[in-house]
Amino acid sequence: MITSDVLIIGAGSVGVPLALYCAERGLSTVVLEKNASWGRGQNRAAIGGIRATHSDPAKIKISQESIRVVRALQEERNIDVEWRSGGYMFVAYDPEREKAFRDLLVIQKAAGLDIDWIGPDRVRELAPGIRADGLLGGTYSPGDGYASPLMVNSAFHRLAMQAGADFRFGENVLSMRTENDRIIAIKTDKGDYSAATVVNAAGADAAEIASMVDLEIPVHPDCHEAGVTEPVARFMEPMIVDIRPDHESGNYYFYQAETGQIVFCITPKPQAWGKDTDNTSGFLPLVLRRMIELYPRLRNIKVRRTWRGMYPMTPDGLPIVNRPRGLDNFMLAVGMCGQGFMLGPGLGRILAQTIADGAPAPADAHVFEELTLYRKFEGMEMLK
Amino acid sequence: MNRIIEHPVIDQGQAKPEVHFTFDGSPLTGFRGEAISSALFAAGIKKFSEHVKDGTPQGIFCANGQCSQCSLIVDGVLRKACVTLLRDGMDLRTVRGLPELPADDRPAASTRIRRIAAEVLIIGGGPSGLAAAAELAERGFSVVLADDKADLGGKLVLQTHKFFGSEEDCYAGTRGYDIAKILEKKVRAYPNVRILANSPVVGIYKDRAAGVYENYEHYLLVDFQALVVAAGARERSLVFPGNDLVGVYGAGAFQTLVNRDLVRAASKVFVIGSGNVGLIGSYHALQAGIQVAGICEILPKVNGYKVHADKIVRMGVPIYLNTTVLSVEGDGKVERVTIAVVDKDWNPLLDTARTFEVDTVLVATGLSPCDEFYRQAVSFGFTAVKAGDAEEIAEASSAMFGGKIAALALAKMLGRDVSIDQAWLDKREVLKSRPGDTVCRDEPVMGQTWKPVFFCNEEIPCNPCATVCPTHSILLSPRKGSLLDLPYFQGENCKGCSACVAACPGLAVSLVRLVDDVHAEVQIPFEFDASGYQAGQKLGLLDQDGGFVEEGELLKKFYNKKYRTWVLTFRMSAANSPKAIGVRIQPEEATRPLREPRFSYLPDEAIVCRCERVFVGEIVDYIKANNVRDVNQLKTIRVGMGACGSKTCSTLLPQIFRKAGVEPAAITPGSLRPLMLEAGMGDLVNEGYTEAAE
């Protein structure tokens, strides 16, 4: 039996930064991961955007922290994670969208976010060549940006190892045993563990892990495909998001990475539920038609690779972060709804502090309250 | 101009239309429809770009559309020079830094999804793919065959030598590119086969569809019920310092330039690897008027057919066994290569180093199957078979049989009542078998009448000499009872017609007769330009191993049109007559090393990932520092993240892991994802596509 202060199930977008911050706080930390290495679940499929400009205060709080953390990796720890403060730009081509964005600005500004409305000229300055016809403007948040999920997760893993975290790859959790409202044993296909705190950071497998302690959580993965192009010289700055749905897709978004590639993704309609992460033939025609209509000069850039990953969804598009009732040493950090990469670093820091101190810092308490498992799960976060 | 004007074997064909283009603003001419890389080589330009990472000059490596190293700016857009066809007025530019995306802001034209369906999709139109297509078409299946090259036939198109095997089964004795035409014609006759040439498959998808990059311009989705993966093989890269210099490239790439496009790609080459590709590549170099300084082979024996090796040696090319390449050096391009003998653990012995001055180093260290689509198809649960080199690296002759057999296996999987003839299975086994025993022949007994002398001692699947003999006097010995058996002459019935001499793919048959007690006449095959030779001229004759025999007097020369081979008749001494089989082509000076070796040995400074320029040392350090057990982790240092999608480096990684102290068996391989080749966004949605474009 291997015993530790913290045992994290899942070495992904959430688990790896959490392991770092736990280890840095002097907690003995074990991470169990079914894949052969870190970030091979949903992190590998993340496209890399990190924004604080959400519509929900808890997510705003967490991702503001994430931006600080990722910037610090690059600027203070001198680790190149390909971070760029390119900003996010939600573009409006119809009055309906313009109104929605402007209404939302009120909430976002109240939360202290650096975001504002910009006119068509400024949009085209930030994204030269974007379609002018019908362009009304958009919101722009220059403090947001993007980084390489691969580089970020790799950095967290390396730092966590150096801080003493014990990563165990290729290891499947088979069962968990509870006694007196505590998880007392975790059995894997390779060994037995116990820990003062057990964290479910299992992404798309979160519901299966929770069910091992008879806990039902509303996390169901759906699938999204994404792609990356060859690199070209920089010509655009922000992550561009077009939230207009059409008959076969929802929103789509793309940005030019620090290294020059365009990275892109689309929300299919209807949603593709399940865990099949093999590519399908419909993705490229679906997303590229819309991208070229919005940004014609992309016609000449070459697609290099595509992939399919999962969004572990909750019914309201918000994560679940809290201790479930009746399981005193279990912590849920699940249901990131496709935003684990942008939420993970900040969440890792907040969670590690909470675990180490036994309670969240007063400023963070609202995160756990809002993201409780016991909320009503109504509505859908607007900027999901 | 580095064009091959005269070639002893290849017809120039019809004159190709000349077009004008520019490279970095300088006006040049080339042929319409040839690969840009060939047009540039013909103009003496071998450096196409500077790597974005460090400005290193870049040129071709695979010349096969696989590796992306030859990319340059074509009319404003980055393209691979080896698969982009030259058009009049093209503006070609060296890539320096990241390419600019053209500010082509015209509104998007109409886009569309194009989709067709077929029962069977065949990926690859080489010998196995074509054979499979014919077999399936014959049984009434609707077939789509997609191939990434404009000319079908796969690598047969590059093969100017006569093929081994048997004439009745696989066109033995016929040259590769002629076989390609025969196979293509046969398939084109079936109305239920749709051929998409110049159109690579770039992805297969879980919904049982494949994406075809039609003419590298449009995107066509093909829905299929079953798949034949006959995508051939790609040349393996090799890790040695200087492996990234302009002028280091694959032997297959060289054959593409020289044999397909008739470009004199080099003035002097050194070849790494003595498999059939390296041996034949060397021979093709000589035929194209290019010198070959030598061939090195790390194994203690030649890896290809002995007849090929013999042929090369007696043209005057030394083969260095137990020898590896230490380094290739030069100022931005290949100027010299240094080789050294290895110890039993393959460590080079630096004091045995020899340096040769060459301008090109050909890597011929083997092929790896292009079986990615097959592996994906199986993981998706599709009905799929693989054939040819994608299944197992072997000769084209066995690939043809393999294609037929795979087609029948697929028909069976699709519910057809077919059985596979055991004779086919047996033949394929024989055709793909490694050489059997090497047999010592008895000293030939000469007489007043013509008799063949065989310089063919190694059992390989081959019988053209027996097939062509009009008096059926050449038989295969009954030793093994298969095509592997060696030929021998029986009876008194040789008419001296020289058909066997001209037909032998190994150039390993002579005809000899005694004219008096001390003189003999000898007919030997010759695949170089003999038009300048005059009767009465004395020429140095060589034995099987390249040793000098004596000067023979040329009596007459005869050009066998069918086999495109000269038969030269010499008068020489009766005593030496059974030994003569070759005429030396290359002067000894061409193969001499420098007096003193000249090299620096920095084994960690060899490129593994060509696209992203990642060196051995870097990878080994990263593996050790991060406890890497998953190839995907290496993406952090950009290994496999480039345009080629790790097609080139993935075969090298096991040895790199071993070097870092990790057994390759413990490694999780990198994941496979479409696209297999990059494709333009506008192309992928068929922007502006009209039916007329078809």
Question: Could you describe the 3D structure shown?
Answer:
The complex is a heterodimer of chains A (384) and B (694). With 384 residues, chain A is α+β, with helices and mostly antiparallel strands. Chain A has two domains: 192 residues, FAD/NAD(P)-binding domain; 152 residues, D-Amino Acid Oxidase, Chain A, domain 2 (2-Layer Sandwich), CATH 3.30.9.10. Helices cover 28% and strands 28% of the residues of chain A. Chain A contains nine helices and 19 strands. In chain A, strands 4, 5, 6, 12, 13, 14, 15, 16 and 17 form a nine-stranded mixed β-sheet that branches. In chain A, strands 1, 2, 8, 9, 10, 11, 18 and 19 form an eight-stranded mixed β-sheet that branches. Chain A has a two-stranded antiparallel sheet with strand order 3-7. The radius of gyration of chain A is 20 Å and the shape is globular. The two termini of chain B are 35 Å apart. Chain B has four domains: 111 residues, 2Fe-2S iron-sulphur cluster binding domain, sarcosine oxidase, alpha subunit, N-terminal domain (Ubiquitin-like (UB roll)), CATH 3.10.20; 184 residues, FAD/NAD(P)-binding domain, CATH 3.50.50; 140 residues, no CATH class; 87 residues, no CATH class. Chain B contains 15 helices and 36 strands. The relative contact order of chain B is 0.12. In chain B, helix 2 runs parallel beside helix 4 and helix 9 runs antiparallel to helix 10. In chain B, a hairpin with a 4-residue loop joins strand 28 and strand 29. Chain B is α/β, with parallel strands linked by helices and 694 residues long. Chain B is globular. Chains A and B meet through helix 5, strand 12, helix 7 and strand 17 of A and strand 12, strand 36 and helix 15 of B. Strand 17 of chain A pairs antiparallel with strand 36 of chain B.
